[in-house]
Specification:
This protein has 13 helices and 13 strands. With 380 residues, it is α/β, with parallel strands linked by helices. The protein has two domains: 20-26 and 279-379, Aspartate Aminotransferase, domain 1 (Alpha-Beta Complex); 32-276, Aspartate Aminotransferase, domain 2 (3-Layer(aba) Sandwich), CATH 3.40.640.10. The strands form three sheets. A seven-stranded mixed beta sheet has the order 2-10-9-8-5-3-4, with helices on both faces. β12 and β13 form a beta hairpin. α1 (31-37) runs antiparallel to α10, α11 (280-300) runs parallel beside α13 (365-379) and α12 crosses α13 (365-379). The protein is globular, with a radius of gyration of 21 Å. The model has no long low-confidence stretch (mean pLDDT 96). Bound molecules: pyridoxal-5'-phosphate (PLP). Pyridoxal-5'-phosphate (PLP) binds at residues 24-25, 77-79, 82, 104, 151, 155, 180, 182-183, 203. Pyridoxal-5'-phosphate binds next to α3. The modification N6-(pyridoxal phosphate)lysine is found at residue 206. Substrate binds at residue 355. Belongs to the class-V pyridoxal-phosphate-dependent aminotransferase family. Residues 42-345 form the Aminotransferase class V domain.
Length: 380
C-alpha cells in the first residue's frame, strides 16, 4: 500500500527584519556582500568561477598574511575548520597540548580525543588570556607532545592571547601550532607566516562580515608535510585536505570534490575584497577605535569589563551585567524595541555577562552610539 502524500504546508515567504547584530556573531553583513550573494549562480567548475576562486585564494592569503599554498575556505562553518585542522593533523596516540580559557579551547580538547589523540590541557580561569609560562611548563613536562593548540580570540570571554609568543614556544619545543582565529581574523593583528602558525581556521561570520557558513583555513608547509606523512587515512572524507586541494588548486586542472557553495563564495570574495581595500592595519585600528568609544560609554553607565585591559578583544566586549538586572529581559527589550542583538554570557559566564560584538561592518560609530543609547534607556 502506498502512503498518502503528506499535505503541502501553506507557509509565507520568510521576511526577516533588519537587525543590528552586535552579539558574538554572526555580525552585520556588508550590503555589497549580501548583493554579491544574490548574483546569478554559475557552475562550480565554470572557468569564470574558477578564476574567482583563484582571486579568493589570493585574498585569503592576504587576510591571513601567508604565502601558504594550502589556503582555502572550507564549505562549512568555523567548527568544520576546527575539525579539519585536528582530523588532518592529529593521528591516534599523538599528544596535543590544548590551552583552555573558555568554551572553544574545550572544543579543541574534544576534537583531539575524537581523533584518538591524547589531550593535555593547560587550564585558565575564564577571562584570562593563555599564559605562555604555563604553556612552557606543559611543553617541558611533555617532550613527546606533537602539537600546541589554542584560541587566539576567545569569543566566550573576550580574551586575546599572544599568538606570536605561543607559536614561538611551539616551534622551540618541536610542536606544530593549531590556532583558532574564528573571531580574530580581520579584527586584530594576525600574521600567519611571521608568527609561524602551522594550522589556522576562521569563520566568515565574524570580523569579515560575510554571511555565515564558510571557514577559511591555512596550513603551513610543515603542516602539509605532516599530513602527507600520515600513517592512517584521515577519518573524514569531506574534510580530508589532500582531497579538497584538488578542487582548490590547479586552476583549469580543478577536479570535482564537492559542489561548492557558489553564491556563498561570491559573498566571501566580496567581503575579503572590502578588507583588502580598507587594508588590514586600518581594519585593526578601526576595531580598536570603536572599542575605545564603547568602553568610554560603558564606563559612564558604570559597567565593567570581564577581561583585564591589556587582553581585551576590541571586537568582543564581555561586560558584567549590573547587579539586580534581569539578563534575558534586557536583551529581549533591546531586540524588540531597538532591533539590536547583543550576546548572552556563555558557559561559566552565563547569566553574569553580556557580550557586545564590534565586528567588521558592525564596528562603526553609529552602532556604538545606538548600543550605548539603548542600553542607557533600558537600564534606566
Ligand atoms: N571558535 C570560536 C572562537 C568561535 O567563536 C566559534 C563560533 O562562535 C567557533 C569556533 C565555531 O564556529 P561556528 O559557529 O562558525 O561553527
Amino acid at each position: 500500500m502506498t502512503l498518502a502524500l503528506i499535505p503541502a504546508p501553506t507557509i509565507a515567504a520568510f521576511n526577516p527584519p533588519r537587525r543590528i547584530l552586535m552579539g558574538p556573531g554572526p555580525s552585520d553583513v556588508y550590503p555589497t556582500v549580501l548583493a554579491a550573494q544574490s548574483k546569478p549562480t554559475v557552475g562550480h567548475l565554470d572557468p569564470l568561477f574558477v578564476g574567482m576562486m583563484d582571486e579568493l585564494k589570493q585574498l585569503l592569503q592576504y587576510a591571513f598574511q601567508t604565502r601558504n599554498e594550502m589556503t582555502l575556505a572550507i564549505s562549512a562553518p568555523g567548527s568544520a575548520g576546527m575539525e579539519a585542522c585536528f582530523v588532518n593533523l592529529v593521528e591516534p596516540g599523538e599528544k596535543v597540548i590544548v590551552c583552555r580559557n573558555g568554551v572553544f579551547g574545550e572544543r579543541m580538547r574534544q576534537n583531539v580525543e575524537r581523533c584518538g589523540g591524547i589531550a593535555v590541557t593547560v587550564d585558565h580561569s575564564w577571562g584570562e588570556p593563555v599564559d605562555p609560562a604555563k604553556v612552557e611548563d606543559a611543553l617541558k613536562q611533555h617532550p613527546d607532545a606533537r602539537f600546541l593548540a589554542f584560541v587566539h580570540a576567545e569569543t566566550s570571554t573576550g580574551a586575546l592571547s599572544d599568538a606570536k609568543a605561543l607559536c614561538a614556544l611551539a616551534r622551540q619545543y618541536d610542536c606544530l601550532s593549531i590556532v583558532d582565529a574564528v573571531t580574530s581574523l580581520g579584527g586584530v593583528e594576525l600574521r600567519v607566516d611571521d608568527w609561524g602558525i602551522d594550522a589556522i581556521y576562521s569563520g566568515s561570520q565574524k570580523c569579515l562580515s560575510c554571511v555565515p557558513g564558510l571557514s577559511p583555513v591555512s596550513f603551513s608547509p610543515a603542516a602539509v608535510a605532516k599530513i602527507k606523512a600520515r600513517k592512517t587515512p584521515v577519518q573524514s572524507w569531506f574534510l580530508d585536505q589532500s582531497l579538497v586541494m584538488s578542487y582548490w588548486s590547479g586552476g583549469a586542472k580543478r577536479a570535482y570534490h564537492h559542489t561548492a557553495p557558489v553564491n556563498t563564495l561570491y559573498a566571501l570574495h566580496e567581503s575579503l575584497r572590502l578588507l583588502a581595500e580598507e587594508g588590514l592595519p586600518q581594519a585593526w585600528a578601526r576595531h580598536q577605535a570603536m572599542h575605545q568609544q564603547l568602553k568610554q560609554g560603558l564606563h559612564q553607565l558604570g559597567i565593567d569589563f570581564v577581561v583585564a585591559e591589556p587582553y581585551r578583544l576590541p571586537q568582543l566586549n564581555a561586560i558584567y551585567i549590573p547587579a539586580g538586572v534581569d539578563d534575558a529581559a534586557v536583551r529581549s527589550r533591546l531586540l524588540n524595541d531597538y532591533n539590536l542583538e547583543i550576546g548572552a554570557g556563555l558557559g561559566d559566564l552565563a547569566g553574569k555577562a553580556w557580550r557586545i560584538g564590534l565586528m567588521g561592518f558592525g564596528a562603526r560609530r553609529e552602532n556604538v552610539a545606538l548600543c550605548l543609547q539603548a542600553l542607557g534607556e533600558v537600564l534606566r
